[in-house]
Design a protein that fits this description.
By secondary structure, the protein is mostly helical. It is built from five helices and no strands. Keywords: Membrane, Transmembrane, Transmembrane helix.
């Protein structure tokens, strides 16, 4: 029989991934839409402030902390868990690492850094903002889906442990 500690850790990781997905969903669903509807200067300034504040947030700890946690759990699953549950944990860790963290680091973060260096009222910034808001949101949709799928994979693996 699987021990309660395994169920708690794997299930807790699923919950963490689902929470990350929820934050991404909020941005995709209404935050970015609201920022795009505001005047460009207001939307740009708000996004610059959000991007600066995220660095000291619990969200960032969860977002990045789930990478080593899910990686270690996937390795544990390969070495210690038999059957399909192991495959679900490996899949969940891979989906999270690629679809959330890699997309964030290679897509969203460089865009955020570029926007942060721009003057809010400059014409070039307003032009970039239109591109930024569309592309950033598309990438965020991908991160939302990936973190939700990773959470679902961890839930499936956890259910199979019971």
């Amino acid at each position: 029989m699987t021990n309660l500690l395994e169920l708690t850790i794997f299930g807790g990781t699923a919950v963490g991934m689902a929470l990350v997905s929820g934050v991404f969903l909020a941005f995709s669903d209404f935050v970015m839409r609201s920022l795009r509807r505001a005047s460009p200067t207001v939307g740009i300034e708000a996004m610059q402030l959000i991007n600066r504040e995220v660095y000291g947030s619990a969200f960032l700890v969860a977002l990045l902390g789930l990478v080593p946690v899910s990686g270690v759990l996937a390795l544990y699953a390969v070495l210690r868990i038999e059957g399909l549950a192991s495959d679900w944990f490996v899949a969940g860790a891979a989906i999270y690492g690629i679809g959330v963290v890699l997309v964030t680091m290679l897509g969203n973060v460089p865009m955020n850094r570029r926007l942060d260096l721009m003057a809010t009222e400059a014409v070039e910034t307003r032009d970039y903002w239109q591109h930024y808001a569309r592309r950033w949101t598309r990438l965020n949709h991908l991160r939302t889906l990936a973190s939700a799928l990773a959470a679902a994979a961890f839930v499936a693996g956890t259910v199979l442990l019971v």
